[in-house]
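Posted in: Structural Biology > Protein-Ligand Complexes

Title: Requesting predicted complex, pyridoxal-5'-phosphate in pocket

I'd be grateful if someone could produce the 3D structure tokens for the following input. Sequence and ligand are given below.
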Amino acid sequence: MNHFWMPFTANRDFKKAPRLFSSAKGMFYQTPDGREILDGSSGLFCCAAGHGRVEIARAVYQQLSELDYASPFQSAHPLAFQLANALSQIIPGDLNQIFFTCSGSEAVESAMRIALAYHQAMGQSGRTRFVSRERAYHGVNIGGASLGGMVKNRRALGPGYPNVVHMRHTWQEERRFVRGQDAQGQHLADDLKRFVQCYGAETIAACIVEPVAGSTGVLVPPLGYLQRLREICDEHQILLIFDEVICGFGRLGDAFAADAFGVVPDMMTMAKALTNGAQPMGAVAVSEKIHNAVINATKNEQLIELFHGYTYSAHPAACAAALATLTIYEEEQLFERAAHLSDIFLDAVFSLRDLPAITDIRGYGLLAGFDLKTKGEPGLHGYALQKALYEAGLHIKTTGDAGIIAPPLIAEEKHIQHIVDVLASVLKGVG
Ligand SMILES: Cc1ncc(COP(=O)(O)O)c(C=O)c1O
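-- Reply #1 --
Done. Output follows.
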């Protein structure tokens, strides 16, 4: 136990009483002592098609047996093109150019690099500022962490990327227990306008938001909020980036949040459910306009247009996993299934509202968050819940004192009821 420095974990406490998963199938994990744990958050929002999908395992095995690796720089393999084509079929608008990465964090860094490269190509290299949002989570690398708006994630960051400003988050204290999109709050998007007035549009490269802020505890955008961001971006030639690392692939009842909310950004980042969590992979979907500007800025076709990429970009095993995953999503109509289940799911989660431990609940699609009363230092109550749930046979994600529920899209009503029953009984204990 001593040598694994665990990420985002209370290492010392964990190692005294480890919470281990040894296998998984469908909706359930198994523990080494033979208990079943219902997965109420798709692992970490990854396993949308449920666990142990043999179709994906077979595709990865077959691919590794045939071609284990090919350099993605100046060479390629067919599956990378197939996957980019398949993604462009389900991604809205003209976001048809796919740049592959190995994680959500790298997708965000890549989107930042592409935004900067685009403005340089357009002769506007002064546009280096990024507008993000309080309570945002965009991964852990220097760029994404600088965009982030959760204080503990910024503590060991130092100066980070220098040119980031944060809009207000969309949680409104006086508007608790709003299910779906709040009719009030669109005005919060005008923070972007204020940054234009304060810094000048000619300094702003892009505005990046999670359409539903996930990791902070599920903040659903108010009605008209994303539309307003789109309008301001258009007015001032600011790129709009949706970070769909959690929202993408059916979580909100549509392929992407961009579909669910009817707003098409200029770039979209994705990861997690892209491979059903079976292989590490992320991607940035980029509009034709941005792609063509960057590509055509280099006049000589013999030369590289964008000096950016990863050794494992479009890794053959990850491409195979993603293609098999997309086939499952389509054949089993899992995005439609999420849309169908959403009301049942939100009814069930909102039935917890009268528990004294809970101070707010929010949700959209098959994604919901709740806040717990803080007890002592922030984060302790959430951690106590996480530990108690493991003993009670349920896994959900907690962040600080918030809980996030995001079951696999294959969930049945009985699983949703089970999640809520276990939460209610455990919260009575730790609340
Ligand atoms: C919106 C968002 N962006 C980026 C990331 C980072 O992804 P990864 O952990 O794969 O680097 C996450 C992870 O939860 C996320 O939710």
